[in-house]
Amino acid sequence: MKKIVVFILILLIGCPLVYAAKVREPAASGTFYPEDDKVLKRQIDKFLDKAKEKKIQGKLVALIVPHAGYIYSGGVAAYGYKLLKGKTYDTVIIIGPSHYTYFKGISIYNGDYYKTPLGKVAIDKEITDYLLS
């Protein structure tokens, strides 16, 4: 009887691990951008408020913005992100360098979410699976 109880306990304890979402923890939170969600939201709002609205002709299909600590690049990046105001989009693909490890080729995170100070961002599994195939 003891063996059955122990087996059932092990099974029950392990079940959530099998179905747990794979979440990518922030790599630069607190260094490239504020770790606190309220501070980060305020900083982003300030950048967007200062960026002047620009009109573009045609449909926006890609956006390239600088990649650096927000104190260095946030103001310039906000001009690009401001172009998205009022727009809808299905998928966002972020391309950036590896800050910590050198490797040849590309890396695609095939998890479920990216965790950010502002919440979790779902990963489009259909697109990541396609890119990995």
Give the strand order, joined by hyphens, for the main sheet. 1-2-3
Rg over alpha carbons: 20 Å
Mean pLDDT: 85
CATH architecture: 3-Layer(aba) Sandwich
* Unreliable runs: none
> Could you please say which CATH topology applies here?
Protocatechuate 4,5-dioxygenase, Chain B
Mass-distribution shape:
globular
Helix % is 25-40%
User: Which structural class should the secondary elements be placed in?
Assistant: mainly alpha
The figure for the number of domains is 1
Strand content: 5-15%
Walk me through the topology.
Layout: H1 2-18, E1 23-24, H2 37-50, H3 70-82, E2 113-116, E3 119-122, H4 125-132
Parallel strand pairs: 1-2
Antiparallel strand pairs: 2-3
Helix pairs in contact: 2-3
Q: What are the main properties of this structure?
A:
single chain, 133 residues, mainly alpha, Protocatechuate 4,5-dioxygenase, Chain B, three-stranded mixed β-sheet, 4 helices, 8% strand, globular
